[in-house]
Each structure stands twice: as structure tokens, then as C-alpha cells.
Amino acid sequence: MNLVLPWHHLLWQQMRYCWQQNRLSHALLLAGPPGMGKTLFAQRLANLLLCEQPVEVENQAHPVNWQPCEQCQACHLVTVGNHPDLFSVHPSAADKPISVEQIRELIQFCSLTTYYGRYRIVLINPAETMNHHAANSLLKLLEEPPPQTLFILVSHQPQQLIITLRSRCQLLNFSRPNRQLTQAWLQNRLAISPPTLNNKADIALLLNLSAQAPLLAFALVETGAMTQRQALFDSLIRLATEKMDPIKVVAQWTQGETVPILPWLLSWTGDIIRGALTGQTRYLLNQDYQTHLLLFSQQVDLKNLFSLLDQQIEVYQLIRANTPVKVTGLLESIAIAWVKLTHSPRRSSL
Ligand SMILES: [Zn+2]
């Protein structure tokens, strides 16, 4: 049974209490960074409210809790994504907004009688991708909500939602999970899975690299991203110490699957700046590379480092915005800048 994630328990209990007291708000805003499990929470809450016979679960790891039975017809229909009283709204493609036409379809759905006579659930995810017209149409719907309907808005960037829409929703904040709970969960998941990264330092590192988002931290290991990160860092060291050809290095970077090169480069640049400003390793996110990063920070010119930071941010934004640019050429200019940055008489000690 897919139980509630440990750092969700308080919010889950809060929802359960409101539901049992018949005081559930008509609109919820699940807000917090990616990787906190907001979508899982939203789906499970929708499932609970649609389930024909929710069950009470109690065990050591999970206090008394209501869960969907996962046996009834409603649970089955939710699982296969075909429950007639559940309506999901999401962008049709990664770079597309949620359109006003999609909200019109939602309004039509809300005008119908519920099929099973229980809750009608609307999931909007991620809510911040609604365009202006879509958000205003949804606002009108929320101002006169249909009966027995729960709107669940999931948002990684709730500040991008119009204020009037936010004020119509009860906020569920996922941004500060209990660190002890997330560390224990991650350790448990990594010990169960084949990866062997499960000592305390590794767990803290993975969470630091993921802005404390447990699901992202787990994905770093599960998807092989940590191995790719190591290869990328090794190539940077070779650029600095072995005078490797930056063009050849970038050819390696762009082989096969797209590696999230720029987020890692930005993370390391940030750490080198922190090292240069403080002279200490304890403020670095990439604790496993602290020796190299601190050496970099002692050897590079801070002004050039900030220029490189700006250059990388600009390229990252261009790529994220799907601007038609030659990515390889931009990465080559960044690799050349790294070589120039580390071109000092003491670089050989790296
Ligand atoms: Zn059920």
C-alpha cells in the first residue's frame, strides 16, 4: 500500500480532520518546491475522497490514518486514470501554458451531476502554468464554487499565481519538511534499492544538492545523475590541470542523454564564490568536492568568477526558454572561460 510520505503526516492528519468534521475547504493550494511529493499527496487525497470505503490504518511507522481501500471500483478507476468525478488539468506539453479552453472544459465538467454522488475532484498541476485568461476564468469558478467539489491546485511557484486566486485557496505548505524524517526516509529507500549510497554524509549531501527535496534527492541516485555529475566534475578538473581541449570536453558533455550540465556548473561556481568569500568549506553545498572547490576559490580571480557566473546563468536561461540557440557553441564558450579562469601559475596544484 502506498502510504503517506512521513513528512506529509501532519498535513494529511489536518486534511483528514477537516474531512471528518465536514470542514474541508473547497479549494486547496499545495505549495512548495519540486520533489516534496505534492502531486502524490494531491492524488492520494483525491483517491481518499472518492473511495467507497476508506480504511483506517495503524502501524508503528504510520499513526492512525485514513487511507483509500484500493479495492473498490472507485479506487480502481482512480488508479487507471478514468474516474468520471475526477478532472485533471495540466499543460498539453512541457513548454505550453494551461489555456482558457481547458478551464472552459473544466467549467463544463463542474456543471454536470456527479457520477457516483460523492465528491467531485479537480486537480490543476502545476497551477502556475495557467495563462492570465485561464487563471481569471478559474477565479470566477472559485468565487461561486459548485457543491461537493474540491479544487486541488499544485504549485511549485505559488507566487506566480494571481493574488485573488491564492486568497481563495487554503494553503498547504510543503516547503519545510522535517529534516529528520526526510533523512530517515531517504536512508531507508537507498538501503532498499540497489544503490549503496546510504551513510549519513551521503544522505546529507544528496539532500543539500536537492534543496532538501527528498524525492529529488532519491532521483539523483536512481537516475544515475550522481555518476554523470562525477564525470562532469572530473572533466572540469582536467580542463584546469591537463590543459584539455575545451572543444573535446564539450563533445563529451553533449554525448548521449542530455546531462543537466548548467545546474551543476552553477552549483560549483556558487560554492567557489562561497569559498573565496569565507575561506571555509562548511558553507559549500558540494561537500564531497570541498578540497578541489576550495583550491579553486584560492586560485581564481573573483571578478572573473562572477563574470563566469553571469555567463552561465544567461546560457541556462536561454536553454530553459527553448530559445533557438546552438547549445554546443555556448557550452564551448563556457568551457573556454573555465580554462581561462583557472589559467594561473598555481593551477597545477589542483
Ligand atoms: Zn476504495
From TrEMBL:
One of its GO terms (biological process) is DNA-templated DNA replication. Transmembrane segments: none annotated. The keyword Iron does not apply. Keywords: DNA replication, DNA-directed DNA polymerase, Nucleotidyltransferase, Transferase. GO terms for cellular component: DNA polymerase III complex. It holds the Pfam family DNApol3-delta_C. It is an enzyme of class 2 (transferase). One of its GO terms (molecular function) is DNA binding. The keyword Nucleotidyltransferase applies. InterPro entries: AAA+_ATPase (IPR003593), DNA_pol_HolB (IPR004622), DNA_pol_III_delta_C (IPR015199), DNA_Rep/Repair_Clamp_Loader (IPR050238), P-loop_NTPase (IPR027417). Its EC number is 2.7.7.7. Residues 24-178 form the AAA+ ATPase domain. It catalyses: DNA(n) + a 2'-deoxyribonucleoside 5'-triphosphate = DNA(n+1) + diphosphate. This is DNA polymerase III subunit delta'. It comes from Thioploca ingrica.
